[in-house]
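Exam revision sheet. Question 4 asks you to relate a sequence to its structure. Input first:
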Amino acid sequence: MPSGPVAWEGVTAPASSGAIGSTVAWFHCFSGIAGDMALGALIDAGADVDEVRAMLQRLPIDGWSLEVESVLRSGIAGTKAHVHTDDVVEARAAAEVARIVAEAALPERVTRRALATIGALAEAEGRLHGVPPAEVHLHEVGALDAIVDIVGTCVALELLGIDEVASSPVADGIGTVRAAHGVLPVPVPAVVALLHGAPTYGLDIPRELTTPTGAALLAANVVQWGPMPAMTITAAGFGAGTADLGDRPNLTRVVIGSRSEPEIAGQSVVLLETNVDDVTGETLAHCIEQLLAAGAHDAWLVPIVMKKGRPAFTVSVLCDPSLAPALRAVLARETGTMGVRGTTLERWPQAREMGEVMVDGHVVRVKASADRVKAEHDDAARAARALGLPLREVARRAEDAWRSR
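Answer key, C-alpha cells:
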C-alpha cells in the first residue's frame, strides 16, 4: 500500500479559459489515437524533438530513447514517434508511475497534465477491476514506453504553448486484441471507461485504433469535444500509427491556433400572426400547445384592443420557413381566423447543450449555454413535489450540479 497521498490526487489538467487569443490544440481522431500518435502529431506540428528529449531526461528512469521518422500513410506524410526501451518491468503500480512523474521537476503544466492522465487511467482501471486506483497495476500503460509517450506528449504541448486541448469524436475499430489480461474486445474496456461521456464512433476495421494511453490523454486534458474550434490556424501535424490500414490513413491530426470569435450565421425564421377577438382562453391555450407540437420554435399570446374597443389577442408563431404552411394551417384550424400574416426574419440563437443531472435521486434536465444554466421547469417541479422542497431550491441544486461537472 502506498504511504501518504498519491501524486495525482487533487490534480486536474489546466481548464479551459475560452478566451479569445488562447492557444488551442485540436486533435482530429478520424483513425483513433495512441500515445505515440499524439506525440508524433505534436512533433510534426513543430515541437522540437531535441527539447522534448531534454525534458524527458528529467524523469528518474533510464533505458529509453526517442527517435522520430517521416513516413507516409495512404499517401499523407506524418511523423512516427519510436520509443525504444530495454524495460523488463511488466507492470507498475499507478502510484509508482505518478511518483516517477512527480519527481521529475517538470514545468507545472507538464506535471499537471501528465498526472491527470495517469490519474484518469488509474480511476478507470480501478473501477473495472474493483480495486483502489492507487493499487491498480498498469500493464501496457505502466511500461516505460507508455510513460515516455504520456510525458512526451505533455512536454510537446508545453513547448508549443498550448493553453487548451480539444478533440473531434474518437474513432475505434472492432474485433479483439490480446493484452496483459488476455483477449479483450475492441474498444477495450479501459478505452470505453475513459471515453465515457465523450463522442465516439466505430469503424469496420478489425483492430484497436484507440489505445488506453491515447484515450487517457484525451480524457484528462480535453476541454472541448466536437468540430474544430473557431481559431486562426498557426500549425498542423500528423502523427503516424504503426499499421497500414489500406485506403484509410493511420494518422492522428493536430491543428493548432489561437481562438477567434466565431462568425455566427443568422437563421431565417418566419413570424406568423393573427388577431382574434372571438376565441376563448381555453381554446387559445390549446392552440399554443398544438403549434409547439407541430414544430414551432415558439408561440405566444399578446392581449390587444381591436376596433370598437373589443378586447382581443394576437397569436404569434415563430417557425422555420419550411414549416410555415403547416403552422399557418394549425392557426386557421384551431382559432377559426379569417387570415394569417407573415414576416420573414433572421435570428441568432445562442449555442446550447442539453444534459441531465441528479438531485437527491431525481433526474432533472438542464439547458446550458456559454453564459447560463437553466433547469427544465417540468423536471424541477416534479422533483420538488417528490422531495418536498421549494421549486427554486431544486432548480438551484440542478444548475449547481451541472456547473460542477
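Marking note for examiners. The mean pLDDT is 90.
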